[in-house]
Structures are given as C-alpha cells and as structure tokens.
Design a protein that fits this description.
- It is a single chain.
- By secondary structure, this protein is mainly α.
- It has 6 helices and 3 strands.
- Strands 1-3-2 form a 3-stranded antiparallel beta sheet.
- The longest helix has 45 residues.
C-alpha cells in the first residue's frame, strides 16, 4: 500500500488542480512534508483531502470543514465534539433536502413552461419536437 503521494498523484486521483491542493495547504487543512521544492503527502493528508472535497461537495464552508477535520484527529472520549459534528451533519442534510425540493419544483415549472411554449410553436406551424431536440 502506498504511503506517500505527490501533489500530482492526489490531483489525478481526485480530479482537482494542483492549485486546489495548494489552496487547501495554504488554508492549513493539509500538511505535506517538503523535500526541497517537492511536496510529499502522507496517507493522512490524502484522507484529509478526501474529507475536504466531500465536505465541499455537500455544501460545507472551509471553516466548517476545518472544524470537522479536527474530528479526524480526535482520540476516543471527546463526545462533545462528536455530538457537535453530528448536529452539523444533520443540519446540512436538512439544507440539502430543502435545496433538492427547490430544484425538483424548478424542473416541474420549466417542464410545464416548455409544454406551453411547445404548444404555442405548434399553433404557429413550427415543429416543437425539432425545436426541443435542438435545445438538448
């Protein structure tokens, strides 16, 4: 099992830019070892990067992510911090559910509007199916 990774290894694995990884390093979220100009990332850094990207994907801010990363370093017994993390995760799930509902409603409204416009085009002699296919 690989124990160190270059910045290129991580960028390729997670489909991010080198700049993105350097940004997270600048924000003190990951801490590579330096050998001259070369950055070497540990398995721990790789795990932290994976958590950072997951956090961003589900809508957490960098400050939220930094707080959550503290859990990655926790030893057993700090239940207050674990409870806080669980609360934040639950809150974010609620936010994402509301966003999902909003997106589903927007799709329904746009679909209805497309049907209306398609009918109007048909009334004017245009072929709505051709217009809709061209838009896709």
């Amino acid at each position: 099992m690989q124990t160190t990774f270059t910045i290129g290894d991580l960028a390729k694995e997670f489909a991010v830019t080198l700049r993105t990884i350097r940004f997270y390093e600048d924000k003190d979220l990951i801490h590579p070892r330096r050998e001259g100009q070369r950055r070497l990332y540990s398995r721990r850094d790789r795990g932290r990067l994976k958590l950072i990207l997951l956090g961003k994907k589900v809508g957490f801010s960098l400050s939220d992510i930094k707080e959550m990363l503290a859990l990655y370093d926790l030893r057993e017994g700090d239940t207050a911090q674990l409870e806080r993390a669980l609360q934040r995760f639950s809150e974010q799930v609620d936010v994402l559910k509301r966003q999902k509902k909003d997106v589903e409603q927007a799709i329904e409204e746009l679909t209805r509007t497309m049907s209306i416009v398609s009918g109007m085009l048909g009334a004017h002699g245009a072929e709505p199916e051709a217009v809709l296919e061209a838009a896709e």
